[in-house]
Specification:
Elements: H1 3-9, H2 11-32, H3 42-63, H4 67-78, H5 82-85, H6 90-114, H7 116-126, H8 141-158, H9 162-179, H10 187-193, H11 200-204, H12 211-214, H13 224-228, H14 239-242, H15 258-263
Length: about 270
């Protein structure tokens, strides 16, 4: 059995293993070397942020039984999509698929900020009053459903192979945990790393309460798109220690409860980014 076959056969185990290893590793790192002091205890935020993962998973499994990987198999069997119509070496298809799927997520992220009704779904992610590894899990189930529909459309259009889709989703989840981490990296290392991957200091700017900072640094995996499309911002105006995390409309700790998070898209005050 090849490595590719092993990954495809054990997809659920691979996903959950990487998830728990990265989540645990980042949580320990935050305890040992926190970037910013946190004023809201983990016991208030973490149970709710972790619970939303369960809701999101159930929503996706209910509405998309075969999800993105199953779609890749289905499209491949029918010869649909760019890479199923245009022969190319497997290694090249894998790499290009990963890059183009990441580009899709970058533009999807910008779309969720630009379209008012999509922002209502996405703003729950930004309404967290602290920034740590569990913020990378905090997405409204309706946003996850729309995001999965976009991802499935991209997989069909590209004809991305199942291995590329699995690797992309595993890496996307892992990097979301990493770049939301409240962890300290040496400045010199951070500057080098952010040419290869989105670092916590780079992504933290995106969670600033200042709208023009919120509308920057949209990347999750690859940091190149922000530089290429003019949405890169090096540092927050107030500095990482002085910046305020979150949104002006949701500043009460009661809004961190799971029930309040699920209701946020339906609240009447839609503080939109400029």
């Amino acid at each position: 059995m090849t490595i590719s076959d092993a990954i495809l056969t054990r997809e659920p185990l691979v996903r959950i293993s990487v998830f728990f290893v990265v989540l645990t590793g980042m949580a320990v790192w935050e305890v040992l070397s926190a970037r910013r002091p946190q004023h809201i205890p983990r016991r208030i935020r973490w149970p709710n942020n972790l619970s939303i993962v369960v809701v999101d998973t159930l929503a996706v499994r209910l509405l998309f039984p075969i999800a993105a990987v199953g779609t890749a198999v289905w499209a491949g069997d029918r010869g649909w999509g760019l890479f199923n119509l245009m022969p190319a070496p497997g290694w090249l298809v894998l790499i290009v698929s990963l890059v183009l799927l990441d580009l899709t997520i970058y533009f999807q992220h910008r779309l969720f900020h630009a379209v008012p009704w999509l922002w209502r779904l996405h703003r729950m992610h930004h309404a967290d009053l602290e920034f740590d590894v569990t913020t990378g899990l905090r997405f409204h189930p309706l946003e996850i459903v729309v995001s999965m529909a976009i991802k499935i459309a991209a997989v069909i259009a590209l004809g991305a192979p199942p291995l590329a889709v699995i690797l992309f989703e595993v890496v996307l989840n892992a990097t979301s945990l990493f770049n939301h981490g409240n962890v300290r990296l040496p400045i010199a290392l951070d500057r080098r790393l952010r040419w290869l991957v989105v670092t916590p200091d780079m992504h933290r700017v995106h969670h600033s309460i200042i709208p023009y900072e919120t509308d920057s640094n949209f990347g999750f995996n690859l940091p190149w798109w922000d530089r290429l499309f003019g949405t890169y911002r090096d540092q927050p105006e107030a500095g990482h220690d002085g910046m305020t995390i979150g949104l002006k409309a949701f500043r009460q700790t009661g809004e961190l409860r799971l029930d309040r998070m699920l209701l946020q898209p339906f609240q009447s005050e839609p503080t939109e980014p400029n």
